[in-house]
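ARCHIVE RECORD
Type: protein–small molecule complex
Small molecule: MV4
Source of inputs: curated submission
Record status: active
Notes field left blank by submitter.
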Amino acid sequence: MFKKILIANRGEIALRVMRTCKRLGVQTVAIYSEADAEAPFVSEADEAHLVGGPRVNESYLNIEKIIEIAKQTGAEAIHPGYGLLSENATFAKRCEEEGITFIGPSPEVIERMGSKIESRRAMQAANIPVIPGTDAPVENEVEAIRKANEIGYPVMLKASAGGGGIGMQLVRNDDALKRAFAGNQQRAKSFFGDGTMYIEKYIENPRHIEIQILADEFGNTIHLMERECSIQRRHQKVLEEAPSVFLDVETRRKMGKDAVQAAKSIGYKNAGTIEFLVDENKNYYFLEMNTRLQVEHPITEEIIGLDLVEEQLKIAYGEKLSIQQGDVKHNGHAIEVRIYAEDPNTFFPSPGKITTFQVPKGDGIRHELAVAEGVTVTPFYDPMIAKLIVHAETRDKAIRKLQIALQDYVVEGIKTNILTLQKIVGHRAFEQGITTTDFIETIMKRK
Ligand code: MV4
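STRUCTURE (tokenized, with ligand):
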């Protein structure tokens, strides 16, 4: 096993990776920005190095500085976490060039799955159902209108380099498409440096269901069941659960098989996630592939009983997967909620010093924390300060456990979304499993 790895990330995921490294006897190197000097993950690491100023592009995105620290400290591998450089093919390539193991898939696969059009093509070649749409870019609004009429409105206009809904717009007719095209192309160009656009049939009222993949260097590729992540606000996931209430055994089997086939077809290595949209008739369509460990991975760990970071380290070190598909069983139900330092009314980030931070303890309650009492939340990074994960033998018991845990979760000194989370998990529609993607915007507003 590696003797020392560098964690090119911060906050809760840095601490989470360190926890597994400690258990495996792997030394950890943290990098931190000036704004994070007092953050808990810095003191938890075996060694920590200042990487730059508060802004991400002078610190956590500073590829050459991170590589330099990895070489100086003798780190054999780098774990990128999620976000930041975790899906940056250039970073993965630079690690390879410097003889440092990037804990993730190859730069080529990262690059390929970073293009939504390219990934759609790859999935079609692997006979995975994709959303009906264009398989080549649409260059201008005239072509977009022609294609949209071939597909049939409503359609989704999307940016190929996009993600998180940026550059994406639902359009219902030619006029709307004419008005939407230039603006979204421009937004994609300024956000991603790539204005390539494409069009898909709009899937009404979908659920967002994703399958966890693990693949070693020997071609062993398995899936670890699904996670349902439909409850989102402006493409920011708020609550995730596993397994999905909506899938029946047969659909789960088919989606799992397709996800494994998709990963194999592109030569995927390490942990990854295939995202699907599922319509009300249980038709599922490939949406995109994430080539990193996801924020919501703990709910899969809880129901499957596997440490995904340990599996990632073992795969990157060249070991075989420790389990086969036949060993994958799920027990019980897990739910994760993301605790954001944000104003519940305006949804603006709410930085400041945390004066009280008390979390509930108990069987089946897991915390991933970026902060603690006395820590100051800065405005420079994603406002997610913690994750609360519960696990129980049934969904109803998991919901009950989550409701109680949220009541006992006390944070003072900053504003949080805890009240919103309590409303979601206390809502009858949620308890009934009515969890389509319009839950927060629509369903929750009904009595
Ligand atoms: C869609 C869709 C319906 N039809 N594509 C893509 C990025 C991801 N964050 C959300 N995406 C969607 N793509 C087609 N053809 C529905 C979603 C979607 C969604 C859209 C709007 C608001 C919330 C959403 C939550 C999950 C999925």
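CURATOR ANNOTATION: The chain has a mean pLDDT of 96.
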